[in-house]
Amino acid sequence: MKRRTFLKNTSLATVGLSAFGVMNTFGNGFGDTYKVNEQRIVSRIAELAKFGQDAKGHGYRVAYTPGDIDGRAWFINLMKNAGLEPTIDAAGNLIGKRKGKNPLLKPIAFGSHIDMVPDGGNYDGTLGSLAALEVIEILNEKKITTEHPLEIIIFANEEGGTIGSMAMVGGLTKEGLQQKSQMGLTMAEGIKAIGGNPANIQACIRKKGDLKAWLELHIEQGGILEQENIEIGVVEGIVGIVHWEVTFEGFANHAGTTPMKLRKDALLAASKFITEINEIALKIEGHHVATVGKIVALPGAYNVIPGKVVLGLEIRDLSVEKIELLFTQMEQRAKAIAADTKTNISFERQANESKPALTDKVLQQTIEKSAKALGLTTKYMQSGAGHDSQEIALITPVAMIFVPSVGGISHSFQEFTKTVDMVNGANVLLQTVLAVDKR
Ligand code: GLV
Ligand code: MN
Ligand code: MN
Question: Does ligand 1 lie within 6 Å of residue 159's CB atom?
């Protein structure tokens, strides 16, 4: 999908055509008096943050680690208390179901993830997960049975490449299961550790049409809403993400006796490459981003010229073609750097890449109307972060609600979203679920 095409599509958002047909007047039939419980959301965010915390109070609920496993057990318990009869599917996704009046209708699903990046924050994924549970709690308290069955889904290992949601849409391959996760286990080993069944991963697949819709509330993770003083973001599209492991091979030799001109320094080659990546990404117009977020230099000593470097390259954009174009240029530059530095540079494209996705236009409008009915300001925007929603978009209409991140900080222990914004987002989610149910 070309970027221009994406923008053109989204400008048609007001037309309102989708799997749901043309939307008419808004209203959930229950009025907008039902509101989420602020105190419950705040205290649960704080409770979940405790799992996997280190001595500095920083979180380490990286997928498949003890922190993740303990946090999931806590969440399962909350699901049970809310009457959801939780199950764990073959990919380790947590699923809680609530019956509707009409069992023939397809479920409306909503949720997010509770795993985190190393040293991550307390809001990424957790807000959407706890707000989903909050919707169920309010329906229970008000004794409301929706027409459609409802499903909360807490996807496993979102941060490691939307692994749980990818499996649910049939995209987690044998190769993908063997890919190493952040904590060192393969995805297959990790899935086993959280109660899934990688040997029968197909058992978790949901087909196109199995769900009526998927909704995800999430923090923005950027600074646009805060800067523009907007309360709710309506997400139009989510970027695709591709990773490469790049290996630089030189020759490890004595750092004191090897003259500068005779060296084959793998780290020098890697440094030149990192600079080039940045220049290529800056030179080409668009909203794409390219990052080297991790690097290992071997053998790793003051007095040895690095003989080998392995780094992680990530490129994101709403257009698959743009990602390929950027990578082709980077690969070409790598050839020149390898020749200059007398090193070898090789690229291994990682399995489990996330494809870009558009959200459903009628669901976008439903979110906007729900927010406006609550007196909240809205803005249509793109997501530069990856989300499970982009995988699930392959099997059902999806939509995302964004709320402001203070200072635009995320994937950091300094990540923060104000209570008022969490509550606004959860109320919009509640109203949107009820509105979709009435359709
Ligand atoms: C997930 O949060 C990602 O954007 O990497
Ligand atoms: Mn997230
Ligand atoms: Mn994240």
Answer: yes
